[in-house]
Amino acid sequence: MQGLNRVKTVLDKGGLALGVWQLLPGSNMSRTLARAGYDWVLVDCEHGNIDDAAMHEAVPAITSYGVSPIVRVPDFQSWMIKRALDAGAHGVLAPLVRTVEDTKAFVEACRFPPQGKRGFGSPFPMDRFGRDVSATQYLTEANANLLLSVQIETKEAFDNVDSIAAVEGLDLLFVGPFDLGNGIGHPVLGSTFAPELEQAIEKVLSSAHKAGKKAGIYCGNGKQAKKYADLGYDLVNVATDVGALTSSLASEMEIVTQKAGRAAFGPYGS
User: Fold this and answer.
1) Which of 44, 56, 87, 65 is nearest to 242 (CA)?
2) Residue 107: which residues within 8 A CB-CB, separation 6 or more?
3) How many separate domains does the chain show?
4) Does residue 194 fall inside a structural domain?
5) Per the domain annotation, does 253 fall within a domain?
6) Nearest-angstrom CA–CA distance, 14 and 235
7) In a domain, 157, yes or no
8) Are 191 and 216 in contact (CB under 8 A)?
9) Which of 47, 56, 186, 209 is catalytic?
10) Domain of residue 188, CATH code
11) What is residue 257's predicted lDDT score, i.e. its pLDDT?
């Protein structure tokens, strides 16, 4: 399976892994995003309008273009993680972790014994890595070929970031800037981040790299994505389906009417 997980391969080679966020359900949406040239598509089951069935449709649609599906589970409960991985996700993003214990439990839920507690039985995940990947190969190689990420978005997680980064088996720390800003008392209320939040974002990057791990961040547009890629982040979200669709439609309307259209707004805006 080595080399069959696109996002992990890019990161393991020291490259920049760029991705897009899927909030709207539908395999056609998944394919549209996957064919746009990104390394990964995040299927958002936490804040997106994507349930378990829609997630199971999105994952194979994304892999059909050689792109890696990452699933953000609603919570880091083991059964939610199992559903994402059994669907064939190349990576899992766990929201709202707070402690080292939370992180260890997440990693254990993602890995087969003896490194973890994941059960084996789904007939689907091996096909998401390639036609020639057998069930036995998936069982023996998945532990080393999945991207396991936790979000640093609570004050408690931020205070424990060095210890969390050191957890064995964890691959990446991911910054959710909006919840992190809320957690440390500097919420994002406009188009710019408070200096204290910028410092926190730099701290997460430093902690990840110091521990030999990768760092990722959510960005709402290309300009912001370039800023944090230039800062040294390894995995960067560039856009969302909702934000890109809203922005594009508003721009086309503006051409016709010569009036400013409604721009995308909020954490998923552009």
Assistant:
1) 44
2) 116, 148, 167, 168, 169, 170
3) 1
4) yes
5) no
6) 10
7) yes
8) no
9) 47
10) 3.20.20.60
11) 87
Please indicate, yes or no, if residue 101 is contained in any of the structural domains: yes
Percent composition of the chain: helix, strand, coil (DSSP 3-state, to 5): 45, 15, 40
User: How far is CA 205 from its chain centroid?
Assistant: 16
Q: How far is CA 162 from the centre of its chain?
A: 20
Q: pLDDT tens track of the chain, all 270 residues?
A: 888 999 999 999 999 999 999 999 999 999 999 999 999 999 999 999 999 999 999 999 999 999 999 999 999 999 999 999 999 999 999 999 999 999 999 999 999 999 999 999 999 999 999 999 999 999 999 999 999 999 999 999 999 999 999 999 999 999 999 999 999 999 999 888 999 999 999 999 999 999 999 999 999 999 999 999 999 999 999 999 999 999 999 888 889 988 776 555 445 454
* pLDDT for 258: 83
78 Cβ contact list (under 8 Å, min separation 6) = 105, 109, 117
Residue 62 · residue 34 · CB < 8 Å = yes
User: Can you read off the two tokens belonging to residue 15?
Assistant: 């490259």
Can you give the residue range of the structural domain that contains 21? Answer: 6-241
Q: Is 209 considered catalytic here?
A: no
Please report, to the nearest 10 degrees, the dihedral formed by the alpha carbons of residues 98, 99, 101, 103 taken in order: 60
Rounded Cα–Cα distance for residues 96 and 117 (Å): 21
